[in-house]
Design goal:
By secondary structure, the chain is α+β, with helices and mostly antiparallel strands. The chain is 42% helix and 21% strand. It has 2 domains: 2-180 and 342-377, no CATH class; 187-319, Gcn5-related N-acetyltransferase (GNAT) (Aminopeptidase, 3-Layer(aba) Sandwich).
């Protein structure tokens, strides 16, 4: 078992037969392809699996992206979410709480954090053939290499990762809730329950009658990748939050060429792309970190509905589970999405007592306040 740092990886450029993780780390080293991510990328090689690893030293920008920064995830992003609640009676007290949490997180240096299997996505997928039996030596390796850093794993939920979560907690990792995601179980193929929902059927009719042509990544040209970046920005950065990852056209194009990102786009009769999505997938799971459409077009065009239908149909065709991330909760529930609380599992037992205490308080607050609110408000 070994952790290969950037300078070691630079001595041996990835070859065509190398793992997708190896290609991804090489592509994303330095963070140039994702505009607001400041982190160091390494590769964990267990002998059977290879995982990308993000290494933060807590010295990056204060608005570092939440995919590598718990400070942003649990403080900056939370503040932005509160503005969308439109519940003044609740937003006021929660704002005070998030401000207090922000000060605690700063004092605890939570951004000194190493994260295993971090693909710099909103949702990381774990290999179906990894049972976590080697977690103890992984923990010892990280503890010895990073004595002043916390370390852990993002994007765990009890539907997909119950055994992995249990193994981690036995080893002393803290379970820290992060958000509520929506899963669509497509393992029954054409008989999958979500395909029978009324809204899902309406979406299928809309896509079938759509004037748009569905094109794959192989049909895209250089200018199309620029357009997809623009569409992603319109939705995720302009409409939602600038704290979301700033994926560049170069990142999209590299992902397509190296095989770790699969793209679909909606091209109109004039040749312009008005909607697009990108999948990450393994043998059992599917996620969609890239979704974008022209938000200036009339809502009746139904671009998001068409893209959603493409995602759901892909999950059923592959007989896989789609992790459709968080957000647009009511929309996803109407189409059969099943809510699951997502966790980060973080190891801090080797850190000074004061820093450990802050992580423990954070876990307690989110489990006792955050999770009930997410479930009650159906976020």
């Amino acid at each position: 078992m070994k952790l290969l740092m950037p300078e070691q990886l630079a001595l041996a450029p990835p070859q065509p037969g190398d793992s997708l993780a190896r290609h991804y780390v090489s592509s994303c080293a330095g963070g140039a392809l994702i505009g607001n991510v400041s982190t160091e990328m390494a590769l964990l090689d267990t002998g059977r699996q290879q995982f990308p690893v993000s290494i933060n030293h807590g010295t990056g920008p204060t608005d570092n992206c939440y995919v590598v920064s718990p400070q942003t995830a649990y403080s900056g992003y939370a503040r932005e979410e509160l503005q969308r609640l439109h519940r003044p009676w609740l937003a006021g007290p929660l704002k005070c709480l998030t401000q207090a949490v922000d000060r605690l997180l700063t004092a605890a240096k939570v951004d000194r954090l190493v994260q295993v299997n971090n693909w710099l996505l909103s949702t990381n997928l774990y290999p179906a053939d990894w049972d976590g039996a080697d977690l103890a030596p992984i923990t010892e390796l990280l503890r010895s290499r990073f004595p002043d850093h916390g370390f852990g794993f993002r994007s765990l939920n009890d539907f997909s990762n119950a055994e992995l979560r249990q193994r981690l907690q036995v080893l002393g990792y803290l379970a820290i809730p992060s958000r509520q995601v929506y899963l669509f179980d497509g393992r029954a193929g054409a008989q999958s329950a979500f395909l029978r929902h009324h809204n899902t059927r309406l979406d299928a009719t809309l896509l079938r009658r759509s004037p748009y042509q569905v094109v794959t990544g192989e049909a895209l040209e250089a200018a199309d990748f620029q357009r997809i970046e623009q569409l992603y920005n319109l939705l995720y950065l302009d409409k939602y939050s600038t704290l979301n990852p700033h994926y560049s056209a170069a990142w999209l194009q590299r992902g397509h060429s190296e095989g770790w990102l699969q793209l679909r786009a909606l091209r109109n009769a004039e040749g312009r792309i008005d909607g697009a999505l990108g999948w990450f997938a393994n043998s059992t799971l599917l996620s969609t970190p890239i979704v974008g459409y022209d938000t200036a077009l009339p809502q009746r065009t139904g671009l998001y509905r068409q893209l959603t239908r493409l995602c759901l149909q892909e999950a059923a065709d592959r007989r896989q589970v789609l992790n459709f991330s968080s957000g647009a909760a009511a929309f996803k529930r109407l189409r059969g999405g099943q809510p699951q609380i997502e966790y980060s599992l973080v190891y801090v037992a080797h850190l000074p007592r004061a820093r450990r205490l802050v992580w423990q308080v954070l876990a307690c607050l989110l489990q006792r306040i955050g999770v009930p609110l997410m479930r009650k408000l159906k976020l």
